[in-house]
Amino acid sequence: MESMEQGPVEFHLEPHGPIYAKGKLKIIDSKGNVQELEEAYFCRCGRSQNKPFCDGSHQR
Amino acid sequence: MDEQNREYTNGEITVIWQPSKCIHATTCYKELREVFDPLKRPWVNMNGASTERIIEVVRKCPTAALSYRWNDPEKNKLQQEQDEKVRQAMEFSNIPKYMPVTVQVMRDGPLVVQGSFEIYNEKGEKLKHMTITSFCRCGGTMNPPFCDGHHRKIGFTSE
User: B82 with B152: CB under 8 angstroms?
Assistant: First the structure.
């Protein structure tokens, strides 16, 4: 129940930018690879060269 | 009922689809393309599999956007009673209410997020607590930040 104390994971919508996720995350890519992270910026413009993560391409 | 809702029947059961609840998790068509094919119209073909198989897949829909009822009212009533008993049993079992958050990256599609999480808007205000949703990552959704299936229309590729 330790994870209960951490509270829910937060997803923040950055203005004109990515989704910032904070908390214990298990990310499963389309090939089934699993990556555990404590925070991540997810691309939501579709242009990142480092999907699913943001690489700042939305500003260009 | 929402007027956007669609119903499909094979004479024995009726499958109900509620687009407003659908997060395009792709569970149905990955499992049973013969029945659920988003590229076809109508997208549900009730002759594509047996009634039992259709029910099995409908029950896996993570948001209950897909549901079904038996056309025979008697049979449907029995089914509902049985489902209610199962639901009650689940409540008293040890299934944890808290789930860690998983982010599933769908090929050429959205991020499917499941677990216990909160969404904050651009101003930092908490919008809501959720347990399942899908976030757009093609940039084309008309309902940001959520997926509305637009990635298929614009031919989004992710790899």
Answer: no
